[in-house]
Amino acid sequence: MAKPKNIEFVNRKAKYEYHFLETVEAGIMLTGTEIKSIRNGHVNLRDAYCAFQGDELWCRSIFIGEYKQGNVHNHEERRARKLLLKRQELNKWQKKVKEKGFTIVPYRLYLNERGLVKLEIALVQGKKVHDKRESIKAKDNKRALDRALKSL
Predict the structure, then answer these.
(1) Considering the domain boundaries, does residue 141 fall inside one?
(2) What's phi and psi for 125, nearest 5 deg?
(3) CB atoms closer than 10 angstroms to residue 70
């Protein structure tokens, strides 16, 4: 069996927009054309979010482009996809989301060593404007320090 190539998609904007409190790896229910499209690299996590529907966690608005060689059975690009987690984790996160200010955001989509698509989701809390400014300032300071060390 051929080893799957290293495929990973990260929602970089999430680190800027939110404080990460906890992350967990979840399975995701996909169709055949979605898997093929992911392996071709047609994924965008930017506007995606997770929401509870009853007792199940669903990920909405993940863009997985249509598979070019697909036929009439091709998938919808932004359909809701069910996440696969243990009941204990679902219950814990559902309680936390009911609290004010917490939400669940997909952070990373990747293929694991067995070739299965996994989604790393994070329990997050939104940042205020001054927190975002501090993030930018810290990033700029780190970049300036790296430049100074490199020139030595």
Answers:
(1) no
(2) -130, 135
(3) 15
12-41, pLDDT tens digit by residue?
A: 999 888 999 999 999 999 998 999 999 999
Residue closest to 49 by CA, chosen among 111, 110, 124, 127: 124
Does a structural domain hold residue 139?
A: no
CATH code of residue 52: 2.40.280.10
CA-based angle 14:104:55, to the nearest 5?
160
Q: Distance between CA 89 and CA 91 in Å, rounded?
A: 5
Q: What pTM was estimated for this model as a whole? A: 0.81
For residue 19, the enclosing domain spans 8-127
Domain count within the chain: 1
Q: Which residues contact 25 (CB under 8 A, 6 or more apart)?
A: 118, 119, 120
